[in-house]
Amino acid sequence: MAVKREGVAFMEPSKQDERLVMKINDYRSFSNIFLLIAAFMSIGWFIPEQAKQMGTIFGLSLWFGLIGASVFCLLLSLKWTREWENS
């Protein structure tokens, strides 16, 4: 449904568009959280006691997993942003 405000007609966002924008923002937030946790874990490599734990397979796999999850969330939000812009 077109709405006219200040002489310019524009379309009101549909419920589907609102949900898509909410999903995009949520995944960007998830990505930022994963990056923040990975950044705090990176500080562990500079603390001598923590460096021993971060150098283990578990510490490295957790760190790479967080980075991977962050990239995955960013790629999904980018995909949905392009879908939203093209529709």
Automatic annotation (TrEMBL):
Bilayer-spanning residue ranges: 29-48, 54-78
Pfam families documented for this protein: YrhC (PF14143)
UniProt xrefs under InterPro entries: YrhC-like
Alphabetized UniProt keyword annotations: Membrane, Transmembrane, Transmembrane helix
Domain of life from the UniProt record: Bacteria
Protein name per Swiss-Prot or TrEMBL: YrhK domain-containing protein
Organism of derivation: Salicibibacter halophilus
Lineage: Bacteria, Bacillati, Bacillota, Bacilli, Bacillales
